[in-house]
Amino acid sequence: MEKTKTSKYDVSEHLRTPEEMAAYLEACLEEANGDAAFIAKALGDIARAKGMSQVAREAGLSRESLYKALSGERTPGFDTILKVIGALGLRLHAEAVRANT
């Protein structure tokens, strides 16, 4: 019987359009449950899909520091997050959440 070959799933290979990238980030924001490193990792996935060198250049960061910041192993500063979101061509927005009464 042949062994099944598997490979690690890489979401960045499936994020092709700005709309897909925005939808992915939106889904991650909903699932993060306050985990900033999780959001940083999601931004890293999107940055790899777009091209880490290009994102680093547009964000005004070195490629190496961008990889570290978006690895999911640390929580980058909010200023870094904002720079990356802008370089990715994305925008944050806020909406009111209605409390259940």
Overall description:
This protein has 101 residues and is mostly helical. The chain has one domain. 53% of the residues lie in helices and 0% in strands. The chain has five helices and no strands. It has helices at residues 18-31, 36-50, 52-59, 63-69, 78-87. The longest helix has 15 residues, at 36-50. The protein starts with 17 loop residues before the first helix and ends in a 14-residue tail after the last helix.
Tags for this model:
single chain; 101 residues; mainly alpha; 5 helices; 0% strand; globular
Gap between N and C termini: 59 Å
Number of strands: 0
Please summarize the sheet with the most strands: none
Structural class based on helices, strands and sheet pairing: mainly alpha
Average pLDDT level: 92
Number of helices: 5
| Helix/strand order | HHHHH
Concise structural overview:
With 101 residues, this protein is mainly α. It has helices at 18-31, 36-50, 52-59, 63-69, 78-87.
SSE blueprint:
Layout lengths: L17 H14 L4 H15 L1 H8 L3 H7 L8 H10 L14
